[in-house]
Design a protein that fits this description.
By secondary structure, the protein is an alpha/beta fold. It has 6 helices and 11 strands. Strands 1, 2, 3, 4, 5, 6, 7, 8, 9, 10 and 11 form an 11-stranded mixed sheet that branches.
Length: 264
């Protein structure tokens, strides 16, 4: 794959979700063009202790890009241009199980892709590779995320399966009930193909699903009202401060020189 570079470099990338743009202070904004077009917004790069961190709001800073129109390839490739070695992707997500409550964190280790027509690979020929997706998330980075959440006093589930739906609409009751009956844990609109694109470029990736609501078809919870975007944003913004603490703690425990199978 062609190698494009940026004059600005970073160690860790944060692919932020709704209401998370205030993550960094004293930032330098980087406006990148990639071979796959423009990313969702300018990338904010700042120093945290001895680490350079890059933040990109996947929906744009004004939440103007719906999930099915995000240029995922440009977003991930822009992080690659900055030289990041790992990406943490927090997402506002719904719960498909009564035991996973709003305010909990889930460190997902598997996904189910229910999206359609998304540009989801860098391998479009003439070079073709078939990467293994058996373990789509970086186990080392996921372990760090779990340990950081525990240190910050968060109720965290150390693994889980996330089903990614197309959006921008939420699920019907029947769809949600089906996902719940299948035994899946979390539902979201943006984690695919973000995680797989990072894997294709040899970048470690971990998802932190911040649970904002119970999904509509949750078994045994007939009192649940249909989810609204306003309620999701309200809960996500309420928990932004604890999410920041977890991310800062993670950055202090990530070994940037550690060998990882994601990079091979």
């Amino acid at each position: 794959m062609d190698n494009f570079h940026s004059d600005v470099k970073a160690d860790i990338g944060i692919m932020g979700g709704s209401g998370f743009y205030s993550f960094l202070k004293d930032i330098k904004e980087v406006d990148l063009d990639t071979p796959y077009g423009k990313p969702s917004d300018k990338i904010s790069v700042a120093q945290y202790k001895n680490i350079k961190v890059a933040f990109l709001p996947r929906h744009g800073r004004n939440h103007s890009i719906p999930p099915h129109l995000i240029n995922y390839r440009a977003n991930i490739y822009a992080m690659h241009m900055l030289g990041v070695k790992c990406i943490v992707g927090p997402t506002a997500s719904g719960s498909l199980k009564p035991s996973i409550k709003p305010g909990d964190f889930v460190i997902c280790d598997q996904f189910i892709d229910r999206t359609t027509n998304r540009k989801d690979t860098f391998f479009e020929g003439p070079k073709v590779e078939h990467i293994s997706a058996a373990y789509p998330y970086c186990p080392k980075l996921c372990q760090i995320a779990c340990e950081s959440a525990l240190r910050c006093g968060v109720t965290v589930h150390k693994n889980g399966t996330i089903v990614i739906i197309q959006g921008p609409r939420f699920s019907t009751f029947a769809e949600s009930r089906w996902y719940s009956k299948m035994g899946w844990d979390v539902i979201n609109m943006t984690n695919y193909p973000e995680c797989i694109l990072a894997k294709e470029l040899g970048i470690c990736y971990a998802n932190i699903s911040l649970i904002t609501d119970y999904d509509a078809g949750l078994e045994g919870r007939d009192d649940i009202k249909p989810v609204t975007n306003e309620e999701v944003l309200k809960v996500f913004e309420k928990n932004n401060e604890v999410l920041k603490k977890v991310l800062f703690d993670m950055m202090e425990h990530i070994d940037l020189d550690s060998d990882c199978s994601c990079c091979k």
